[in-house]
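Lab meeting, item 3. Inverse folding demo.
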């Protein structure tokens, strides 16, 4: 039964990229604070942050068409793309700081340069892509982006996608070489290794069951030590709920007013993977297409070169689907258990509004392997079934809440930090743009929860992240400087110049 009653400064729930980033930031800003981590699985980075559970795209809006919607007057709105690009610049600066400070030794263990491309078919889409290119390429953040609708050029850029293409439909692509493939699983593990060296107590196979406010305003966290079958109680002045899809049920347990009227909509995912070296060698890019009509933004199809375990492979997908689980390792009762008296109307309203989406997800779930191959062949006309296998990706729990613009039960596709008024507890909900913007999101947690420390912390934050609080889009010179420095530190300069890339090429030869 219950044994331990222990006090600490900070408790981080979950060992994914978000807790890893927050813990690392806090150890730099307040090294004397005692931090404990509780993770229900046996290792760090095993859920959505794992390299096989997400697409590993360093989302900087270089290729994702859903970040640049077309307005009713036909112009392209690039404001979201600028925002996401700026957020990714924060991540690159923080990661560079970690490399320069020797907290992470080899950046190629988690980040690789890879061109980011958008690829479209059909006259209307080609026109849209051209307008998008014209709008973005004027902005310093997107410098170096190229556009082509010339099939010969496209054969150079994406031979695998062009091989066997017989249709006369107009096609076009944009390409920018400063894109990245990020192994968020490896990064999460590297950060937890670092936190362990900093004496952070990391408790694996410890599932948080409950969170309650203690009399003195701190939080009491009830933890199940899975191996020993014991219950422990730990109190902390600050708790971060970084449980990924598991965050919503934990947030609900806090009972804070900010946790009410919020629901979660789980979306599952599948990828197709190719390890045939001949096929893999013909593709070197992350190529994002346009989402099908009715498809949610997180199921935009893309064909990606991935670097995992020092091996190059290709990933296609994701195929979205419906599953009531909030985590890949979750329970089929997660969704139903998350329905509470305070959110039942919000959830019901979303259920009615999102009938089409639910239908789409169920249809996706029912696809046969051959039907999935047909979708892949829209990208890779010569794709052979024997070269591609299925991997089950992570779960994404989208936030449902009542908004002024969307009304009751509106499905949100972004990430959201929910915190108590006194800043003693915060949770991260939602999954997009996700891990790429972990640094921006965790800075938001610091600003919301530790306003009293921000003045003191600001010089250190600026040392780690020089553009903190400054718009890079409006400061092209600063952007140029930061872009050059981070590219050098993270080994992202030029094409295929990194040592790991050379090793891979040698292995492939
Ligand atoms: C299919 C897919 C594709 C994606 N593609 C990209 C991409 O290309 N680029 C990108 O930037 N992002 C992408 N994302 C999003 C990204 O993976 C997530 O935003 C990110 O990994 C979330 O990190 P996290 O730390 O919040 O959660 P997780 O990595 O899920 O970690 C949460 C941890 O909390 C633990 N936990 C949960 N409940 C409890 C509990 N009660 N007690 C103890 N531990 C608990 C879990 O076991 C888990 O280890 C993708 C996600 C999916 C699913």
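The presenter then showed the designed sequence:
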């Amino acid at each position: 039964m219950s044994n331990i009653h222990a006090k600490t400064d900070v408790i981080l729930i979950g060992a994914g990229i978000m807790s890893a980033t927050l813990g690392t930031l806090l150890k730099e800003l307040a090294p004397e604070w005692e931090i404990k981590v509780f993770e229900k699985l046996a290792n760090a980075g095993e859920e959505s942050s794992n390299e096989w559970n997400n697409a590993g795209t360093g989302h900087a809006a270089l290729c994702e068409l859903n970040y640049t919607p077309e307005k009713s007057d036909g112009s392209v709105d690039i404001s979201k793309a600028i925002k996401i690009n700026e957020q990714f610049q924060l991540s690159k600066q923080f990661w560079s700081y970690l490399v320069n400070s020797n907290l992470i030794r080899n950046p190629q263990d988690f980040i690789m340069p890879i061109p980011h491309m958008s690829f479209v078919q059909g006259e209307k889409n080609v026109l849209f892509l051209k307008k998008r290119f014209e709008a973005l390429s004027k902005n310093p953040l997107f410098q170096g982006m190229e556009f082509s609708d010339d099939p010969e050029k496209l054969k150079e850029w994406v031979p695998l996608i062009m091989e066997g293409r017989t249709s006369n439909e107009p096609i076009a692509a944009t390409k920018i070489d400063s894109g990245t493939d990020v192994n968020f699983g490896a990064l999460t593990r590297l950060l937890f290794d670092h936190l362990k060296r900093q004496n952070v107590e990391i408790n694996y196979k410890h599932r948080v069951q409950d969170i309650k406010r203690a009399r003195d305003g701190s939080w009491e966290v009830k933890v199940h030590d899975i191996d020993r079958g014991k219950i422990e109680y730990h109190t902390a002045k600050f708790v971060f709920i970084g449980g990924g899809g598991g965050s919503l049920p934990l947030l609900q347990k806090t009972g804070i007013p900010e946790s009410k009227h919020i629901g979660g909509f789980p979306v599952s995912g599948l990828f197709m993977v190719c390890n045939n070296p001949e096929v893999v060698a013909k593709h070197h890019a992350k190529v994002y297409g346009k989402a099908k009509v009715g498809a949610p933004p997180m199921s935009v199809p893309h064909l990606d070169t991935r670097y995992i375990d020092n091996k190059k492979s290709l990933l296609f997908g994701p195929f979205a689907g419906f599953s009531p689980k909030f985590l890949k390792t979750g329970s089929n009762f997660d969704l139903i258990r998350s329905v509470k008296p305070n959110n039942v109307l919000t959830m019901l309203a979303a259920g009615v509004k999102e009938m089409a989406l639910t239908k789409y997800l169920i249809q996706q779930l029912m696809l046969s392997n051959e039907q999935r191959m047909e979708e892949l062949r829209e990208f890779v006309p010569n794709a052979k079934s024997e070269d591609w296998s299925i991997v089950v990706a992570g779960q994404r729990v989208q936030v449902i809440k009542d908004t002024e613009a969307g009304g009751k039960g509106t499905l949100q596709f972004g990430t959201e930090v929910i915190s108590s008024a006194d800043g003693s507890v915060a949770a991260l909900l939602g999954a997009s743009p996700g891990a790429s913007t972990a640094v921006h999101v965790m800075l938001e947690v610091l600003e919301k929860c530790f306003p009293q420390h921000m003045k003191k912390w600001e010089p250190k934050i600026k040392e780690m992240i020089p553009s903190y609080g400054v718009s890079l889009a409006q400061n092209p010179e600063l952007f140029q400087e930061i872009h050059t420095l981070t590219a050098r530190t993270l080994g992202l300069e030029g094409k295929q110049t990194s040592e790991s890339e050379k090793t891979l090429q040698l292995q492939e030869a």
